[in-house]
């Protein structure tokens, strides 16, 4: 008797059962998704609202996102006011059993305003700069927050999540040492960036952002501001302009042409550019691009 | 629904002083103020519209407040302040989660989801005014009423299917208000399907139906249907294309004579609106509209409007300057007339005046 068809059916059924049993998780960004996939392995199924190519400051609340969240057991937020759009998506999902975790808990937040904040300062975040995932040491904190949230909703797999967390910590700590050694050429490097996305990465890798193409966060560049920035770059010999892929090329190219600087596309998230396919390769890509630009400075 | 400003002032004072006097964590409602200032010019317009005048008009100040009431529900309030006084445009509570079948329940005064555009406030549009069909069928403010809404969200793969039903009192239909004293209720339902076509494009279409019994001399049921469609393509944060269209048909009984004597006749009215809005820069958009309504009730008749518009938003939609050029014509008008509106919308608070 040929048992092959029944074996295939049984296999497919078991795989289906396993898929059905996977804990459904939705994340605001691809960076959280990447870490969650490492911790959760095959016990979870993760979807991200943003693709990495989007500006996470502006996400349209769509019914398809609500449907995605309506099936989830856990939502992982980036927090610090960046993904404020997650609130209406979660409300619209009508999901009464959804657990929500904020991955920024325990992170040392940079640039937290000490006084009153208003819109005359631009699109400033009252809770501090929210781009904290761009320091891989904060990735360790995020991973612990994610593991804690997963154990909270799926205690039966706590041992599995804990083991994966430890593995993630070991691998990331090793990579952190490697990246820091490789970043020696970036120590003290002064750069200009489009948006203030990089204070955490700068603190980690040792470079310093001394100017922004945006005159204030979220404000389009003006001619007078660009002229001032060009003067600043010339006077300090700045030769690197960092730009997130979702911002327009025009202003960076104009500034580069006047100063001799190089425009470097810096992926701020997993999936933002080729090579940045997970949380580890995101930093490989960032380091590689910045180092390459620094080496070309005459 | 118009109220005197003085009557609601104590409530507003409490809201405003709460916002100013306590730390962020103790301020519950997210307060927003949206101002709508216009410079309007008319040429050959009927007297009721503006003849050949040019006028500055602070059209409306909209105040919105909304926040969670508890982990399961929230409340939202929108007050419109204009020269006519204060209008409670919306004031409702929503039970967000915890109900079976993915249900949400909303109760209070709200914009009924009969079609897509009726649920929206005019500051969300580049074309400034509510489409003719809503003005003719439901009055200047469209259809808002006090009632109960129950909706459910279901998935068809990655598509989202929303089913919604309303039971409500009030509203105006072809200039005849539903008479609450008769105890008549209106019922409406809407089905909409949202389909993400790619990471950058999506499509939404919906069908709505409404039925009610009016308190006029003719009596009988008034029934209405609505089809809406929206396509949006947003390849990056600097550009988008939004094409939307909505059509409406309604049928009601009208008394034959002035006194209501004679046999009542059933009349049918139709309306259609379409617009194309193209954002070609982070701060600029431009587009065109087509607006049509055929209403056989004497004094209205058929009217067609076409227009073009451009808009400029300096910073994150905190204010928007829009220019609308429009021409209207139809048998009921003595001659075609032109309208130019320069509009300044500004927003103080999290609720923004316009989304591309």
Number of discrete domains of chain B: 1
CATH class of the largest domain in chain A: Alpha Beta
Could you say which structural class the secondary elements and strand pairing of chain A correspond to?
A: alpha/beta
Total DSSP helices of chain B:
2
CATH fold-type name of chain B? Porin
CATH topology assignment of the largest domain in chain A: Rossmann fold
* Order of SSEs of chain A: HEHEHEHEHHEHEHEHEH
| Average pLDDT reading of chain B | 84
How much is the average pLDDT of chain A?
91
The separation of the N and C termini of chain B measures 31 Å
Number of domains of chain A: 2
Number of strands of chain B: 19
The CATH class of chain B turns out to be Mainly Beta
Task: Give start-end ranges of low-pLDDT stretches of chain B.
Answer: 1-26
Element-level helix/strand string of chain B: EHEEEEEHEEEEEEEEEEEEE
SSE layout:
The complex is a heterodimer of chains A (298) and B (356).
Chain A: H1 4-21, E1 23-27, H2 30-40, E2 44-48, H3 63-70, E3 74-77, H4 86-93, E4 99-102, H5 136-153, H6 158-182, E5 190-193, H7 199-205, E6 208-212, H8 223-236, E7 240-243, H9 250-259, E8 262-265, H10 279-295
Parallel strand pairs in A: 1-2, 1-3, 3-4, 5-6, 5-7, 7-8
Helix pairs in contact in A: 2-5, 2-6, 3-4, 5-6, 6-10, 8-9
Chain B: E1 2-3, H1 5-21, E2 30-43, E3 54-70, E4 73-82, E5 85-95, E6 103-111, H2 132-138, E7 144-156, E8 159-169, E9 172-173, E10 176-177, E11 186-196, E12 201-213, E13 221-236, E14 239-254, E15 265-279, E16 284-295, E17 301-313, E18 319-329, E19 337-348
Antiparallel strand pairs in B: 1-5, 2-3, 2-19, 3-4, 4-5, 5-6, 6-7, 7-8, 8-11, 9-10, 11-12, 12-13, 13-14, 14-15, 15-16, 16-17, 17-18, 18-19
